[in-house]
Design goal:
The protein has 23 helices and 22 strands. With about 750 residues, the protein is α+β, with helices and mostly antiparallel strands. The strands form 6 sheets. The chain has a 5-stranded mixed beta sheet with strand order 7-8-9-10-11, with helices on one face. It has a 5-stranded mixed beta sheet with strand order 15-22-21-17-19, with no helix packed on it. The structure holds 2-acetamido-2-deoxy-beta-D-glucopyranose (3 copies). Its EC number is 3.1.3.36.
């Protein structure tokens, strides 16, 4: 609904459609702000929920904070005034509190912040409320006066509900605690709250600045297993403040001292996958690093390498930070800096104390928790850790930063812009644009499943005028290139005599792998590069694709006794060309289950039955590549990689099956009978033979793992949640109720011995 409305708002201002055309502004029309019942204070600038009433209609919408909503509400207001209606409630945006009238409002205001802070009957277990307790001296200690506040949390909630369903009551608790703890000398608006499982970011701005904030967006990226689970990852916001683009990231990277490589991979993943869409859909999404200022905070989990516990504690006691930092794994986090860090280590303490970890593991102290930044004109004024807060085994850190903000002089901007347009018009009329391409053919060698490859093409503007280029789609094609290819940038501007590098990237994911594996499609494409007011250039792209078991069907793989890359493409094509029903088996005796599944499951069964965090801790991409190659070529003989990488490969394999283990056609039936064990068993008996074998084999393996639950901490709930999502994929979008039913279905096969 939100985006539709925004679309309408844009439409309104571009096409001069009036508001009346969209909403009937009549005598019985009203807009009422919906009170968020848990919030006793208003947060100006936060997402706002309004209810629109007209005639019999009643529509509740949530408007994201930002210029579009502002525009929309001010138009609504204007339309009202024009009709001089008797308005039940008025909303102004950004609203000043006095103008919002609603029942109980004055009372709420009187209660105010101070009363909440002075409450003294908190229970110690409620960590969120503790933040606001006077004895922590937060006002004096933590909260320095600032114009904008960002507060980041990690591991907000470690419960399974939070992990699997991304839902937690802690969100509101902590948000209240922070809102009430901001500096008392000014009023702040909560502009954005974004959360992924336990990683949360809050962004506040002083009321008087709210109107200068625009293009507010929030995104999240999970880097947990299969890039989906949100126990690790990042949340981020971007916004424009006056004319500066600012991005704030809060991340929680992989833990454990030896997982250094995994942390770097998480960081890279976050940078490449976290994309903010722009209001103009024709513009490429913005990455984190495209912003003028980037603030990066969180539990980055980087440790000190090669120093033992006693050494570290000794150096900390001597305050020898120079030596300590020379062992720091974080280095200069790819162009982000953190200033001089002379704080006590932030990790790891016995919860509730200032004692170093006294547990058996006796973790080495480290600076896991950081506040880093990137951008011109950023200066750290203050940096501090908060030893008084004892609710966690980490100590929180805070930093006060000063940022230079760009302000465009509208008048001279307009003048310069008009001058340039005039100049361009004149030149355009005189000359035809032209470019030189550094190559007309691009060949990628040995493209593989889930392995990124890039080649660069350079455009050189050798014409007499600046030019505008764009890859355009060919007749009858929906996009300018095949789905496995992207050109970055796909359009742009080149000054006269200038150059632009275009990255052509190939990435075969699960949507495209099946057709390529089966030989029904090749990596071949022809791109058309169009110059505005100029001619078209053609660019051919080709590659040899190396087929993979990932993305191939169970049926096909059961008929391949040898690794897929040793089979002639012609054979695979024949095997996969007939429809499902009519397919005749090509070999006399197909395998019971694909040997690749056997190889991965057997590996885990033999090596990792007692591994903790199995199927929850992600593996390394580098090792996935080796495992894939081993399955596809048969070399080496046994699977490489850690337990976690093999486990993730197995999940990915199930996830990329074009037809899931429970075929789409039986999915609905599974939901219907999910509470009845004998009916569930009956559905499984209806599966095609090789699907049935795979299902039973995996269920048996998981029951085996559950026998070691004292060591691996797995339980029926965790396994049902993870595997039901892969074995029973929905042909359409799944809602939460459906998801729970698939889990209930699969649980029948985990709890009992079906032999
Ligand atoms: C695969 O890649 C295409 C093109 O980048 C994308 O549109 C699609 O969503 C991806 N599919 C999956 C399952 O990630
Ligand atoms: C795999 O897990 C087992 C426990 O079942 C452990 O002993 C072994 O070291 C792990 N292997 C690797 C390579 O981590
Ligand atoms: C489950 O289904 C079977 C067969 O349809 C039926 O006989 C049985 O009563 C059902 N059990 C329960 C607990 O509903």
């Amino acid at each position: 609904m939100t985006s539709r409305l925004l679309g309408l708002v844009e439409l309104m201002f571009h096409l001069y459609v009036t508001l009346d055309d969209i909403f009937p502004i009549s005598n019985d029309f009203a807009v009422v702000e919906v009170i968020k019942c848990l919030l006793h204070y208003i947060s100006i600038g936060a997402d706002i929920r309004v209810r629109l009433n007209f005639q019999d209609g009643d529509l509740e919408v949530r408007l994201p904070f930002g210029s579009h909503s502002r525009l929309f509400l001010s138009e609504v207001n204007k339309a009202w005034s024009a009709q001089s209606l008797q308005v039940k409630t008025s909303i102004l945006w950004p609203c000043s509190q006095g103008k919002v009238k609603r029942e109980g409002w004055d009372e709420l205001k009187r209660e105010g912040r101070h009363d909440l802070v002075h409450q003294s009957s908190h229970t110690a277990s409620n960590k969120a409320t503790m933040l606001a307790m006077p004895q922590f001296g937060l006002r004096d200690n933590l909260i320095r006066f600032a114009e904008l506040y960002c507060a980041g949390f990690q591991e907000l909630d470690l419960s399974k509900v939070a992990f699997f369903f991304n839902d937690t009551p802690k969100e509101t608790e902590w948000m209240k605690a922070v809102s009430e703890g901001l500096h008392p000398d000014a009023k702040y608006a909560l502009v954005k709250l974004v959360r992924l499982v336990g990683i949360m970011l809050l962004f506040y701005v002083r009321n008087e600045h709210a109107k200068h904030i625009s293009e507010m967006e929030a995104e999240t990226v999970g880097t947990g297993i299969m890039g989906r689970m949100g126990n690790k990852g990042a949340v981020a916001i971007r916004f424009r403040f006056h004319n500066s683009d600012i991005c704030v990231v809060n991340s929680h990277l992989a833990a454990h001292i030896e997982e250094y490589e995994r942390r770097n991979q998480d960081y890279k993943d976050i940078c490449s996958r976290l994309l903010f869409h722009q209001h103009d859909p024709a513009l490429a999404p913005l990455t984190i690093m495209k912003h003028n200022v980037v603030l990066w905070l969180g539990d980055l989990n980087y440790r000190l390498s090669d120093l033992d516990v006693d050494n570290v504690k000794d150096l900390i006691a001597k305050k020898d930070f120079e030596v300590l930092h020379s062992y720091d794994q974080v280095g200069c986090f790819r162009g982000l800096c953190g200033g001089k860090n002379r704080l006590p280590a932030t990790y790891k303490y016995d919860t509730g104390s200032d004692q170093w970890d006294t547990s058996e593991k006796c973790r080495v102290p480290a600076w896991c928790d950081r506040i880093l930044w990137r951008g011109k004109n950023v200066r750290q004024l203050h940096y501090q850790s908060h030893m008084d807060l004892k609710t966690s085994d980490h100590k929180p850190v805070s930093s006060l930063l000063e940022m230079g903000i760009k302000l465009v002089n509208e008048e001279s901007y307009k003048k310069t812009f008009e001058e340039i347009v005039r100049l361009l018009d004149k030149m355009e009329n005189e000359c035809i644009p032209s470019v030189m391409l550094s190559r007309r053919e691009v060949h990628f060698k040995d493209v593989k499943f889930m392995q990124h490859q890039a080649e660069t093409l350079t455009l050189h503007n050798d014409g007499q005028v600046p030019c505008q280029f764009e890859f355009i789609q060919k007749l009858d094609e929906p996009t300018y290139c095949k789905p496995w290819l992207t050109a970055n940038p796909a359009k742009g501007f080149i000054a006269q005599g200038g150059k632009v590098d275009i990255d052509l990237e190939v990435f075969v994911n699960r949507s495209t792998a099946t057709e390529l594996n089966a030989g029904h499609q090749q990596i071949e494409d022809m791109l058309v590069l169009h110059l505005e007011r100029g001619k078209d250039y053609f660019l051919s792209v080709s590659s040899n694709y190396l087929p993979s078991c990932f993305g191939s069907s169970i049926q096909t793989l059961c008929q391949l006794r040898d690794p897929i890359q040793e089979i002639p493409l012609e054979t695979i094509r024949e095997l996969t060309s007939s429809g499902d029903e009519t397919r005749t088996l090509m070999i006399d005796k197909p395998l019971d289950i694909p040997k690749e599944i056997w190889q991965m499951v057997d590996h885990l069964y033999r090596n990792a039955p007692k591994q903790g965090e199995l199927f929850q801790q992600p593996g390394l991409h580098r090792e996935f590549v080796e495992i894939r190659d081993c399955l596809d070529t048969g070399m080496p003989e046994s699977l490489p990689g850690s337990n976690h990488s093999v486990a993730e490969a197995l999940l990915l394999f199930l996830d990329t099956l074009p037809e899931p283990v429970i075929p789409f056609s039986l999915y609905q039936q599974c939901l219907e009978c999910c509470s009845n064990t004998s009916q569930c068993k009956k559905v499984v008996s209806l599966l095609p033979q090789c699907h049935k074998n795979v299902f039973n084999y995996i269920a048996a393996f998981l029951r085996e793992l559950l026998k070691h639950s004292t060591h691996n901490s797995l339980d029926v709930n965790i396994l049902a949640t993870i595997f039901a999502a892969l074995l029973l994929r929905s042909p359409t979008k799944q809602d939460l109720a459906e998801k729970r039913k698939t889990q209930e279905f699969f649980q029948h096969f985990l709890v009992q011995d079906l032999s």
